[in-house]
Structures are given as C-alpha cells and as structure tokens.
Amino acid sequence: MHAWEIMSKPVVRVLPSTSVREAAASLVEHGFAGMPVVDDGERVIGMFTEADALRATTAGGNGATVAEYMSTPVEVASMATEIEGIARRMLADRLRCVPITEDGVLVGVVSRRDLLRPLVSSDDTVASVLGAVLTDYSGHRGEWRVEVSDGEAVISGEFADEAERRVVGALARSVRGVTGVTLKSVPRT
Questions:
Q1: Whether residue 93 sits in one domain with residue 21
Q2: Between the chain's N and C termini, which has fewer beta carbons within 10 Å?
Q3: With contact defined as beta carbons under 8 Å apart, do 70 and 47 qualify?
Q4: Do 127 and 66 fall into the same domain?
Q5: Are 179 and 150 contacting, i.e. CB atoms less than 8 angstroms apart?
Q6: Are residues 127 and 84 both part of a single domain?
Q7: What pLDDT is recorded for position 138?
Q8: What is the 3-state secondary structure (H, E, C) of 72-105?
Q9: What would the 3-class secondary structure string for the chain be?
Q10: What is the mean pLDDT of each run of 10 residues along the chain (189 residues)?
Q11: In this structure, are 75 and 109 located in the same domain?
C-alpha cells in the first residue's frame, strides 16, 4: 500500500507568517498534533506541532509567528512511498505525521491514524461505538457483548425485561453503520 492510498487531504497547513496563536487554535480546532508549514509555492518548509505551540507560550511568545517556533528540518515522503516505510520512520523518529509531496508541493499528510485505518474494519469501528453507547446506557456495568459483521449487530447478555430489550435494540439501531440488530438473551454465569 502506498501513501497516496491512505493520506488525508486536503491538508490543513499554515504559513510561516501565521501567528502562533492562530496556528495553535487551528491545531486544537482540527484535533491535530501537528501540521505542515508551507511557503508561497506550497512547498513544505517546517512542521508546527503542539510542542512548538507550548514552547512559544511558555517563552512568552505573544505576537510570535510560526516561523520562530516551527520544527525543521521536515521529513516528507512521496505519494508512491510504501506505508511500511512511513510507519518505520514515524516510529523511529517519534513523528505524528509525515507530509506527502508531489514534485516538492504538499498534496497530503499521513498521520498515525491514517496508518491504523486500514487495519480496522468498519465493523470494528461500529462495534466500538455501539459498545460505548451501551456501556453509557448501562452505567458502565458491562451488561452486554457486542459483535458486528457486515453491519449486523449481535448483542448478547442478560436483559432485565422486554422494555430494556426494546431500548437496547433502539439504541443499537441509532448507531451509524448498524444495518440490523439481533438480541440474544444469555444469563450471567
């Protein structure tokens, strides 16, 4: 698998002239640990990370620009780079994301989350969300076991009564990706 197959795009990026405050707000707003810094030609010249933002804040960098605190040099990869190589570089250098370039121009970013996405099926994601919904409903008592296959959710466990079965079924059907629900009563052991 190659970078172009899993990279995130369009890329949220900043210019070196962007204020640290604005860049930090963008990191928080988008939930990123870091983002590329590009020049006017969209060429990657640095990375601005949460650590850089904190460094600027603790240094009293009010009014500072990204150029003063960005991390350089930057590891970039091409769209044709194998994701195994990107993963190894990210682990070895403790990188959270790698900018992807084509002819030197930023076209995407591969994050740790992007690398994990192919390993997790949509059924796994649906099961995780459904499990969290049911855990919240039950008050974290761990009442039911959830399995999802091709969108079909099977919820096994003990139900207090028919009303609870209907509520659990309705909650399950409210989760995006659930196409059907089967409830199996299994007494506690």
A1: yes
A2: C
A3: yes
A4: no
A5: yes
A6: no
A7: 85
A8: CCCCCEECCCEHHHHHHHHHHHCCCEEEEEECCE
A9: CEHHHHCECCCCCECCCCEHHHHHHHHHHHCCCEEEEECCCCEEEEEEEHHHHHHHHHCCCCCCEHHHHCECCCCCEECCCEHHHHHHHHHHHCCCEEEEEECCEEEEEEEHHHHHHHHCCHHHHHHHHHHHHHHHHCCCCCCEEEEEECCEEEEEECCCCHHHHHHHHHHHHCCCCCCEEEEEECCCC
A10: 91 94 93 93 95 88 88 94 94 92 95 83 87 88 88 92 93 91 85
A11: yes
Answer whether 133's CB lies under 8 Å from 168's CB: no
Structure tokens at 7: 């990279």
C-alpha to C-alpha distance for 76 and 159, rounded to whole angstroms: 53
Q: Which two tokens stand for residue 38?
A: 């590009």
Could you give the CA distance from residue 149 to residue 154 in angstroms, rounded to a whole number?
8
Distance CA 49, CA 54 (A): 9
Which pair of structure tokens corresponds to residue 127?
A: 């099961």
User: Residue 45 belongs to what domain range?
Assistant: 3-118
Is the peptide bond prior to 10 cis by the omega test (within 30 degrees of 0)? yes
Look at residue 121 in the predicted model and tell me its pLDDT. Answer: 66
**Domain match, 105 and 19 both:** yes
Phi–psi pair at 173, nearest 5 degrees: -65, -20
